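Ex. 9. Protein: Sodium:alanine symporter family protein.
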Amino acid sequence: MLMKGFAKTLGDVLSTIDGIVWGPIMLCLLVGTGVILTIRTRGLGWRNLGYALKSTLSKEARTKSRGSGDISPFSALTTALAATIGTGNIVGVATAMVSGGPGALVWMWLSAAFGITSKFSECMLAIKYREVNANGEMSGGPMYTMKKAFKNKKIGAVLGWVFALFAVIASFGIGNLTQANSISESLKSTWNIPTNVVGVILTILALIIIVGGIKSISKVSQVVVPAMAIFYVIAGLVVIIINIENVPAGLTAVFQSAIGIQPLAGGVAGTITASMMNAMRFGVARGVFSNEAGMGSAAITAAAATTDNHVRQGYINMTGTFYDTIVVCTITGLCIASSGVLGTTDASGELVSGAALTIAAFSTALGKWGAYLVTIGIALFAFSTILGWEYHGEKAFEYILGTHKYNMIYRILFSLIAYIGATTTLQIVWDFSDIANALMAIPNLICLLALSGEIAKDMIEFQKVIKAEKNK
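Predicted structure tokens for Sodium:alanine symporter family protein:
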């Protein structure tokens, strides 16, 4: 009873803090930064999206023949995607559509549209200002950008340290606790596997792979992420096609809810403004949880890429936001919207949310196989996210201490935390992750705004390279 009371109190506190940090100011800063960067760069991120997608799928992107780095450009992207395509796409979308109404999906799209430029910018800068550590490995990310690019070195050093601190904290939240929790809950729901058993297995598997560092992590990511993403998208399309007659009504509900015409999920009526703000808040928050644009995390992995030009790799890494939110999250959202399961309750009278909602949506078309597919998808995606975020957190940890010598301590601790995540209640885990996301994003967004002129200049200059390559 005492532990339950403590958990409830902790949950209430985290929920209150979460509501504050993800208020209007944070939403404006996050989306507004993407808008400003898109305008200053003359929309080149959007205009060159085709070039970026083509570069990502090229044979050259899978080699280390051009420039210097630890892993190939494609491996850098898939490792970054490993940290993003996961529970945010399957569980996060469902949570957003329950908490903020189906209209949250529209705000996920809008935040992703401008997040493409944010993702490009942070990754490009990370490569431009990366360093080689004492172990001969690339080290980069917003913390190095702030330290080296800011004219006022004191401010840059402080912001860099703060970002690294929040990145370490976020790695345990968004990158570990939420992922392990989603895996354990889905496996328990589908196959009744005890959460403590899942926690032990996750810890052991994570440690085995993590010990090998970025090269080991990228080898797993470049196989698991593309294969599972394609499989999940195809299965999602099958669900949508089977429920095709409900798609128009589902899309209508999505757009009406986005502007506050429909009441909130669960039949709770609200004003148009309150409803729209709720959809916006959860849509943007879960969108960021999914694609991490503006957070700066993907930039840490991008810095390990082998490339001859920081802008070139920036374009490759920015496609992660497109694949993650515009493609995969949309599939999940449309499956839920067209299935008729949104707003349903379970045996206890609680709204069906998270993994259970997505499983229910797939099951309407595929039966038990739908549940199996989503469960396997969550397990693989979430586990790859744990691996990708370990690298993010490790590099931030290395930056704070100024040496790579203690990275093994971080790796062991990170792996053990997976057990806690697997056995912790969902809401506490999600609220903690949302808070960590906001705290991590703030210094990174300040950095992007401060260096927006430099970003635009480098991007415009690279247009000559793009034109030359197209004319070959």
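Check your answer against this statement. The chain has one domain: 11-470.
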